[in-house]
Design goal:
25% of the residues lie in helices and 26% in strands. By secondary structure, the protein is α/β, with parallel strands linked by helices. It folds into two domains: 350 residues, Spore Coat Polysaccharide Biosynthesis Protein SpsA, Chain A (Alpha-Beta Complex), CATH 3.90.550; 108 residues, 3 Solenoid (UDP N-Acetylglucosamine Acyltransferase, domain 1), CATH 2.160.10.10.
Length: 467
């Protein structure tokens, strides 16, 4: 199909977005990306166009203690923005992931509210069209002393891979749309009026993080370093380990500016270089600091925020592999680092990066392997075996029996085992746990029978166990 033929579909996309009430800025942004799709652009970033970032180029957060006092003074001019658009689909849920009970009987949302209250900073939630109503209902029940600000992420229409026309799915029209990635946060701040509201209230500094990462609190030393040096943008990065091979990495463009490359932007022939932790040693934790005045000036100058495109091939109905193939246009929040002259990055400890993506992660966080600091941030238990290690406990649960949250909770209904002295846990087969079980060292439990096996109350397990 020729470019001209495909471009005829653009008017259909524009009409569809206008009917949904999307703002002209969002429509213009999608149109910009759609033209790139039609022209055959894939959003790939090649090794030849970037250079690795060396360890001596990046400040270490452990050495920023002298900025703490300045950061505490800046709290009154700061906002914590939490990305709350995700559903817990990877764990078998259909509602907001932030409403999962994650620790001490509290949900992600309740803990984030406590973290913001502890620092006495404003909290804003960016909801998606999938999480908005459920989140508002949950907030009305929690009734926090400081009700958070709320704004909505936009949505983009899905593009049929065959013909590049708008995807249609009459039996479930909401599947015709996709969230445009967390890179939409900047446009959503502007079009919702939230950016103006914050600036009018003399809120200059924003810390943005995912709702499922409870290690990412509003850190005074990082805020002090960011605010006093008048950086427009700062990305928190961590040292890559073999567990982070797919994490988007930091690099430097030939013009000297920093850039983020996601795995979806890497050509398959260059995956080995992408995953080389000695070459690309820093990965993006998706904890971002941004000066809202700089953001506002950039949008006014450019009339939009145009981040590097990520083109995700999917099926129209994610649960139906036989549904038509579509492209989802997305962008990454961290990619904005390339838009700001003078943007920087800072290396943070792994304690600021404990995302809960799967049931394996949820079990670890629910256990005594993790505790809360006095600042209400999640941290590895200092009394445990992992206290002096850079990595956290490795958990590998049989997805057939533990891959969904209801299956996980059924097998640990009497409580999560003590993991404070456990380095790794692997479970194969159908295993149920009674209360007060303790696991130590490197533990492998296997049940090869079709029937369930039970770990008895009070058991202490070390090493391999075949049931």
């Amino acid at each position: 199909m020729g470019v001209g033929t495909a471009m005829k579909h653009l008017s259909s996309f524009i009409s569809k977005m206008e009917k949904e009430g999307l703002s002209p800025m969002v429509i213009d942004t999608f149109s910009y990306y759609y033209k790139k799709v039609v022209e055959g652009e894939t959003g790939l970033v090649f090794d030849r166009d970037i250079d690795p970032v060396h360890k001596d180029e990046i400040k270490d957060a452990n050495n920023l203690g002298s900025w703490t006092a300045a950061g505490k003074k800046a709290f009154k001019h700061a906002v914590r923005i939490t990305l709350n658009g995700g559903l817990g689909t990877s764990m078998g849920l259909t509602g907001p992931k932030s409403l999962i009970k994650v620790k001490d009987g509290k949900t992600f949302l309740e803990i984030i509210l406590q973290q913001a209250e502890h620092c006495n900073v404003k909290l804003a939630l960016m909801n998606s069209f999938s999480t908005h109503e459920d989140t508002l209902l949950a907030l009305s029940k929690i009734d926090p002393p400081g009700f958070p600000l709320v704004f909505l992420q936009h949505k983009f229409p899905k593009i049929l891979q065959e013909g590049l026309s708008p995807a249609t799915w009459p039996k479930k029209p909401e599947l015709e749309w996709n969230p445009p990635g967390h890179g939409d946060v900047y446009t959503a701040l502007y079009t919702s009026g939230m950016l103006k509201t914050l600036l009018d209230e003399e809120i200059t500094y924003a810390f943005i993080s995912n709702s499922d990462n409870l290690g990412a609190g509003m850190d005074a030393s990082l805020l002090g370093y960011f605010s006093e040096n008048k950086f427009p943008f700062m990305m928190e990065v961590a040292q890559k380990t073999p567990a982070d091979l797919k994490g988007g990495h930091l690099a430097r463009q030939k013009n000297g500016r920093l850039i983020l490359r996601e795995v979806a932007q890497c050509h398959e022939n260059e995956l080995s270089a992408f995953e080389d932790i000695r070459r690309y040693r820093f990965f993006n934790t998706n904890n971002i600091w941004i000066n809202l005045k700089f953001l506002n000036d950039l949008i006014k100058k450019e009339k939009t925020i145009r981040l590097p495109m990520i083109l995700n091939p999917k099926t129209l109905d994610p649960r139906n592999e036989r549904s038509p193939g579509v492209f989802q246009v997305e962008t990454a929040m961290g990619a904005a680092i390339s838009l700001f002259e003078g943007a920087t990055a800072v290396k943070v400890p792994r304690s600021r990066f404990f995302p809960v993506k799967k049931c394996n992660d949820l079990l670890a966080v629910r256990s005594d392997c993790f505790v809360f600091s006095k600042e209400k941030n999640l941290m590895v238990n200092p009394a445990g075996i992992l206290k002096n290690k850079s990595d956290t406990i490795k958990i590998d649960l049989d997805p057939k029996y533990y891959g969904k949250i209801d299956l996980l909770e059924e097998r640990f209904k009497d409580g999560v085992p003590s993991l404070v002295d456990c380095e790794s846990l692997a479970i194969e087969g159908n295993v149920f746990f009674q209360k007060n079980v303790t696991l130590k060292g490197e533990v492998k439990i296997k049940n090869s029978k079709k029937s369930r096996a039970d770990i008895k109350e009070g058991s202490i397990i070390e090493g391999d166990l075949t049931l």
